[in-house]
TrEMBL record:
Function: Catalyzes the reversible cleavage of pseudouridine 5'-phosphate (PsiMP) to ribose 5-phosphate and uracil. Functions biologically in the cleavage direction, as part of a pseudouridine degradation pathway.
Source taxon at top rank: Bacteria
Binding site for substrate: K90, V110, S144, A145, D146
Cofactor: Mn(2+)
Catalytic activity: D-ribose 5-phosphate + uracil = psi-UMP + H2O
Cofactor: record remark: Binds 1 Mn(2+) ion per subunit.
Protein name (database record): Pseudouridine-5'-phosphate glycosidase
Gene for this chain: psuG
GO MF term set: hydrolase activity, acting on glycosyl bonds; pseudouridylate synthase activity
Family: Belongs to the pseudouridine-5'-phosphate glycosidase family.
Pfam families in UniProt: Indigoidine_A
Binding of Mn(2+), residues: D142
Amino acid sequence: MTMNLNQYTDISSDVENALAAGKPVVALESTIITHGMPYPDNSRMAADVEAIITQEGAVPATIAIVDGRLKIGLSIEEREALAQVKGAMKLSRADLAFALSEGRTGGTTVAATMLAAHLAGIKVFATGGIGGVHKGAETSFDISADLEELGRTPVIVVSAGAKAILDIEKTLEVLETKGVPVVVYGSDTMPAFWSRQSPLKAPLRLDTAENIADFQKAREAIGVIGGMLIANPIPQASEIPAEIMAGYISEALSRATRNGITGKAVTPFLLSEILTITKGESLVANIALVENNARLAAKIAVALSTR
Ligand code: PSU
Ligand code: MN
């Protein structure tokens, strides 16, 4: 069966067969590969999350743009090449189609991956942390397109919350305004990416993948459009406590200001500065939380496919 996609899109046969058979599929983003982590950690992480999703009984679909082709499900070779490519674009809703028309290569952000997943009929997506409202957004106006996408595209995004480099409180406010449910998995507290705790209460809480699938079915039944954010706290053994992270984050933020970093460069710059400041500890935590999210996303996809 051929998917009703378009002249720019290649869907891998594994993903196509799974979708046609109603089997669970989990989308994965690729900005985390091209801009979020250095090589070779990015490559190992990308392979590990796919393996975890497979173990849980779902089919992984890493999404990216390679030489102007929108790939839904990268081959191992394509994924490995992307992990090493120099000068990849960081693609969101605004420039995804530009990369297609210009034959470019790029990693897809949460926003662009949601859009592509929906195009292919994939309902669940795992990432590390979504973009959100940056600290100081009242003057910079820097609010990630990820929030807008969550408001309009019906994909469940499993993350470890919003990255703690952001203003999590304002991020939750914007999500609420856009009608995006934020469900914390198994906790009453909103997690903060590298840390299990933030000062904020969980907007909603659910404790099982089946409950999340039931919630999604109810949203669909009453015609609520748009995405849902699952905030999955990082495993205890891998977390960096919030008090410790706070110092690292403020140091990284002041380096960003000093270096005049703006726009799309902000998130990759902060992540890489924090990696340097923590001597790699933040990266170990980042990989652990992405893997944890991949596992939960697969469970949700399985639960959705059997309901
Ligand atoms: N999560 C990570 N590392 C990342 C990102 C998320 O653990 O690099 C990426 C995602 O692709 C997300 C993007 O969509 O950062 C947000 O960028 P911005 O703040 O510029 O919208
Ligand atoms: Mn931004």
